[in-house]
Amino acid sequence: MTAFRDLHATGIFVMPNPWDIGSATTLASLGFPALATTSSGHAASLGKEDQKVTLDELVAHAAAVVAAVDVPLNVDAEYCFSADIVGIGPVVRRLASTGAAGLSIEDFNPFAGVINPVEVAAERVAAAADAAHDEDLVLTARAENLLYGAGDLDDTITRLLAYRDAGADVVYAPGLVDLSQIATVVAEVGVPVNVLILSGGPSIPELAAAGVRRVSTGGALARSAYAEFRRLATALLAAAESARLDGQA
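RE: above sequence
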């Protein structure tokens, strides 16, 4: 687990998000130093909607990816599959048993369909941090308010600071796209920041200059793969000449 923690110490690294074993082994073979699961991509690979994957399915997925690659894996644990704080520790320990190097917990409550109040969310982060650090896992705490239109930058920073103080090793606010806002977050929180790279957003060199430590892709790679698959399949169904597929069995 030390290797994953050490990646966050200096500089910046890209941690793409595979959605199955084939995409994971491909990304690892290309030389990425770490990988992360994606809840939406994994769900799509199972024919499910995001946030509908079970804990058993995620544990099996994480274990399979860990066994297939020789780089650290961070697990997107969503809401840690527990409405109650007491259930968080056991979930973290189950994910640790897969050999994962880290996991994330977010503050969107899928049971209620709302972003938790910061005090409630911070208590959950603290519970996850206690269990994660017992297992030597890197814990990432996510503020989801920007994705759901449930707060502004000040609210995001307040949340990330609370999660840092609750024990998070890394903080992450998906939806941040303005470089100056990202730099403000980095300067304010004082711990490694993960940024979701988005089309039209800052480049990796710009993020590095702003002090970002980690960049992830979320479900973008899976969406792109499935979109191209759907485009080719649709053309094939229509018997279009443009549907040229390679002929390997």
